[in-house]
User: What shape does this take?
Amino acid sequence: MAGSKETPRQRMIGMMYLVLTALLALNVSKEILHAFVVINDGLESTNRIFEAKNSTTMNQFRQQMAYDPEKTKPYFDRAQQVVDYSEALDTHIEALKRHLITKTAGYDDNTPDSLFALKNIKSLDNYDIPTSILIGSEPSTPVETEFSAIELKGKIEAYQSSLIALFDQESDTELIAELNEGLALTEVPKPEGGIEPWETGNFYRMPLAGCITNLSKIQADIKNAEADALKALFQNIRQNDFKFDTIEAKVIPQSSYVLQGEEYKADVFLAAYSRTEQPVMLTGTYDSSANTFDVSDSLLVESGLGKISIPTQSTGFKTYDGVIKLKKEDGSYQDFRFKSDYIVAAPSATVAPTQMNAFYKGLKNPVKVSAPGVASENISVSITGGNSIRRTASGDYEVELSNNSPRNVEVVVTATMPDGSQRVMGRSPFRAKPLPKPYAKIGDIESTGRMTANQLISKQGIRALYADDFPFQLNCRVGSFKVDLKYQGSFVTMESRSNRWTQQMETSFRALPSGTRLTFYDINAKGSDGVRHEMGPIVVIIQ
Assistant: This one.
């Protein structure tokens, strides 16, 4: 097979391919076999170029679909069929090449892909196995099995028929002739004279190097036919309805204001415009009920892009309408309406140490919530993990965590937009933590200290406190404790069922001589979260 329109590079590869095929028929040295590696590499490079070219054409189709889907769709659908037919046949040939290499080189499923490159194969001159797979033992009656040349021939003929069926037999005669010629499975001349069938001439007693190169050449012909078909279909869209001479990639974000935790989303597409015929672009207000457009501003247009500049005087959610008037070949204009929105927010800053980003169980944790550009009354706040959050004032909330709260919770802020839609403005993660363990204290003594008996009695009991750097002022009360002391030669243990000294304790403390050592222990307290704690002992030495 040979394409009807080839570049000089393709023609050079084709000539080398024919010369090497003739030399193979003369049973020349292995250097000629390795020369096929060079030809095959060139063909595979050409195929990649075709793939890029055909991909570009399909991108142009998609651009036209976005611009005028009604007119483009019939041609786009046929173009997609061309791509599907071509990919199916190319995939089969690629599988056939891999099958031939696997069987001839003795590979298996664990063989690295790099060893399938023709330059890395040791058995390039083996023709017995490729011939057995593709033709069989009798060239006059080729086998019709999977991965045989007869099967491949049938798939090529079906591909050719499928492509031609997509075009009009009367108006697309030139393209159909090119497809018939480029995909023709012609008989092959024998070196000794005469001709033989396509499948025998291309694959019978052909070494592996020649078989793989032949298949790469067929893939090139297929991609060339695909390119011709796509080009013909694209030309039928009548691109001259509007004058375009430049195509650029453009990005349109779904929102021009994105909070941390949300996804930034944008549409990326190819935009076409004319550098000499600029469109007219206007902004204003569109009344859908009356189908009227009240113009407020005319935009400066550069390189097909309208430059919108809107002063911001107030915060909040803003929308605007617009129209692009594009001049057609007949001098009339076609209107393309657009609408967009943005958020105006007052300058603000929030400073929060990440290590303190936590809520405590058993407390009413205060938290402030705001969404720049959105009024407080249009904000709703929720929290995960079966916990509760309630508004206490404008922008102020209280969070209460259940004892079964998961370790991590999330506060979700949702705003009601002017059109009534709901938009998640942010998600803030917090750690759910139990209250810290309190500590016991007698006067200023936390673990060991000295005081007089009168001073000890004046303290009235034991206090339970949270650490000074804990940000909440909470109540924690001692519920019971014990004290050991030596009194009048006896070892005495006394117990209180509250946080205060008992009458027995006060009487004993008054009689204590200097140097007496008292040990307060089994100090139990109940925190604000209802959790009971046993705190460390305190030793007081009487002065």
Notes: The chain has four domains: 8-237, 246-344, 354-433, 439-542. Residues 347-355 have pLDDT under 50 and may be disordered.
